[in-house]
Amino acid sequence: MKTWTIQSPLQDVDMTQFSIGDTVFISGVIYTARDAAHMRLVEKIRNHEELPFSLQGGVLFFVGPTPSPPGYPIGSSGPTTSGRMDAFSPLLLDNGLKAMIGKGPRSEKVIQSIVRNKALYLIAVGGIGALLSQKIVESTVIAYPELGAEAIRQLQVKGFPTIVGIDVYGRDLYKGGPNSYLNGWK
What is the pLDDT of residues 18-27, one digit of tens each? Predict the structure, then answer.
């Protein structure tokens, strides 16, 4: 397993170099979106309307942050369960999204779309939202403020820690990882 540092947006990043289990530190701009925001993005794509941000080389973080404490750009920012975005992710990937950050396994349809689009599914460790928020240096709501915690935010991150959960070849840490771990006990 390797450790990588990348800059987002990911237009110039060779996604074929990453393997499941690799650690990836992200700096640059990423966007937040959960269920309600995903539904609106997909609706805009289907209606040929302009999106609130460019998906090209983009990274989406599945999070609903807590309110910002005084003097901080954002509150606790732990990942949410990614499976709830499975119905929307293929269309976003087909329109230029290059990486998603969340937790939990993804559907076969999402995995096929990741492979087709040479994208990545990155895992952020759940339960450490306060630590992850320390890697967010700026947070701005850019769309759907009426959604509260589910509004789309543009985040400026520095050294945001993730693990490759599904790579461009469709290898899935949630499937292969436990077997590899359990085989070490034999």
Answer: 999 999 999 9
Q: What are 137's strand-pairing partners?
A: none
Judge whether 63 and 44 are in contact, CB under 8 Å.
Answer: no
Residue type, 130: A
Cross-strand partners of 121: 100, 166
Structure-token pair, residue 87: 């119905």
Q: What residue ranges of the chain have pLDDT lower than 50?
A: 185-186
Q: How many CB atoms lie within 10 A of CB 142?
A: 14
Question: Distance between CA 82 and CA 17 in Å, rounded?
Answer: 23
H or E element that contains 24: strand 23-32
Domains along the chain with CATH numbers: 27-178 (3.20.130.10)
Euclidean distance between CA atoms 69 and 146, whole angstroms:
20
**Distances 129 to 37, 56, 75, 93 between C-alpha atoms, Å:** 20, 27, 8, 26
